Amino acid sequence: MPWLLALSAVMANKHKKGFSLALFTLSPHPGPGPVPRAEAPAEAAMRLIQNMCTIAEYPAPGSVAAADCCLGAAGRRLVKIAVVGASGVGKTALVVRFLTKRFIGDYERNAGNLYTRQVQIEGETLAIQVQDTPGIQVHENGLSCTEQLNRCIRWADAVVIVFSITDYKSYELTGPLHQHVQQLHPGTRLPVVVVANKADLLHIRQVDPQLGLQLASMLGCSFYEVSVSENDNDVYSAFHVLCKEVSHKQQPSGTPEKRRTSLIPRPKSPNMQDLKRRFKQALSAKVRTVTSV
Ligand SMILES: Nc1nc2c(ncn2[C@@H]2O[C@H](COP(=O)(O)OP(=O)(O)OP(=O)(O)O)[C@@H](O)[C@H]2O)c(=O)[nH]1
Fold it and tell me: Cα(94) to centroid of ligand 1, in Å?
């Protein structure tokens, strides 16, 4: 579609220059929904692009600067999220829905774009970067993750694992993928949310909602079954929950630390009588030394 190409070109171009796109809608609000049929596609794409502004230059995932960076534009705290899953499950659709509140319906095969927006979490504005990743191919002998994908996972503070309810294989990938994510972050537990997409396609469902829920709770993750094509609230909630988890993790609570230190017993104040006695002893020893000389 030419208008889609125009949008991709703008995104790709910004990308080359190291820019990210940001949408200045901060909190959930009733979105305009899918692009109305009557609107000319080129017009819709232009409106979409105009809604986006560049807020900052960010280092690309994988670079040393990116790895060290935890502050976004204007000194805001930065949360980096990678969206991973099998091919065709709707990763790009999910990211675009989250960024623009729109479902466009036809996407270029993923080129691994990085997007930025701001969100309000518990009264604080956070800059969040969302990395769309190429679909993982499922092989007989398990996961086949490219180095590019591994770099994105290492770069991320949190991960969204997406599967499609119409593709059992994509569901089966979730467990091994979660394990892989955690292995790439040794010594810490990376926040992960599991998203089952395409909930509108009930007639071709292959994955029961209970299965997704059970798996996610076994993995210790939040779970959302969503239809990116029909609804943006659940999509927003999934990202919001993840950002909140990262935000809490980034701020190791000062209060328990304080509480812990206050539990350590203070040394007893020295006994005055004892001090006087020791002082006299020291004094008389000194007098003895002087007289003996
Ligand atoms: N019916 C329906 N279709 C969806 C939904 N989400 C995505 N799709 C469609 O699924 C197809 C694949 O979507 P993408 O977003 O390109 O999937 P992807 O996971 O990024 O795919 P790769 O780039 O190959 O990894 C597209 O035709 C989307 O329109 C949904 O919630 N419902």
Answer: 8
